[in-house]
Amino acid sequence: MKVLVTAATGFIGAYCVDELLRRGDQVLATGRDRNGLEYCRRKGIPSCRLDITRPEDFESLPEHDFGAVVHPAGLVPSNVKEEEYDPRNYFTSNTIGTLNVLEYCRRHGIGTVLYTQSHSDVEGHWDSGRPIPDDAPCSYSLTGDHAMYIVSKNAAVDCIKHYELTFGLRGIIFRLPPVYGYGPHTTIFKDGKRLVTGFEIFMEKARSGQDLEVWGDAQRGRDIVSVKDVADAIYLALHSPNAKGTYNICSGRKVTLEEEARAMIEVFGDKNRSKIVYRPEKKNSLRPFVYDISKAKKDFGWKPKRSFVDILKDYQEEERLSSFDFLVRKKE
Known about the structure:
By secondary structure, the protein is an alpha/beta fold. Helices cover 38% and strands 18% of the residues.
C-alpha cells in the first residue's frame, strides 16, 4: 500500500513511517520540522514539507495516488507556551487541518484516513475504576488547558464521520492514552508553563543512583502504551478491511506508580544504590484510567506486545542508536 503520513517529523508519525516501511509499504513522509525532513533525506525516505493548514500545500505534493492517509498531525497543549496561547490555533490546526486532509482525500479518491484522537475526549470516565470501552460517550471538561484542544479534536472526528457518511470514506480513529518511546517526554508545557515530567525526574534519578519518591497512593496507575505498539496497530488497521470507527489503542492494563519506579530502576538505575521511598502524605495529581482494547483485537488482530519495562528498554536502545534524536526536545 502507498501511504501518506502527516507529521512524519513528529513522534508518532516518525515511528509509523519506520514501521510501514519495515513491513513493505510505500510511504511519503510529510511534515514541517527541518530536522525531521533532513532525517528522512539521510535515510532515503521519500518526503516533503506539508503544512496541513494550507490547502495549496496538498496540491504541491509530488504524487497523489495513495491508498490511505495516516494523520497524527495537530497542535497539542504540551507544546504551547503561555505567551503563544490562542484557542483559534487549535481549530486552525486540528479541525481545519483535518478538513484539508479530508478534502484532499475526496478529490483524489483516497479511501482511508486513520486519525489519532486524544483520550481526553472520555476524561469524565477516567475515575470509574472500570475499563473504558471504545464506544464510551464523550465526557470532558470545558475548563483547563486541554478544553479547547479537545473540542477541536472532537470536531475533527465529527468531520471524519461526515465524510464517511457523505462520501464513503473509511475513517479509523485511534484513541491514544499516554504514548511512550524515545521522544519528547522530558519537558512539556502545562497551562503554558514549562514542566519537567515525572518520566524525566524518575529516569534521571535512577541514572544517578538517587532514591525515587512515590507520592500518594503507590498503587494508583494509568494505561500507558508503547509508540512501537501504536505503529504496529496502524499497519494492521490499514491492511484490514474490518477496521472502521473508534479504537482504544492502549495497553489494556494499569501501570502503577510503584511499577513505573521499579521499572526505571531496573532499566536505567543501579539496583544496589537506588530505592523507592514511599511518601503517602504527599499529594499526587495523577488520575487513574484503563481502557478496553477488545475491539482492536477482534477487528484487526492487534494486541500490545510491550510491557512498561520493554518501553524503557526500547527508549534506552533508541537513545544509544541516536536514530530519532530530532524528536527529543532540547533542554533550555
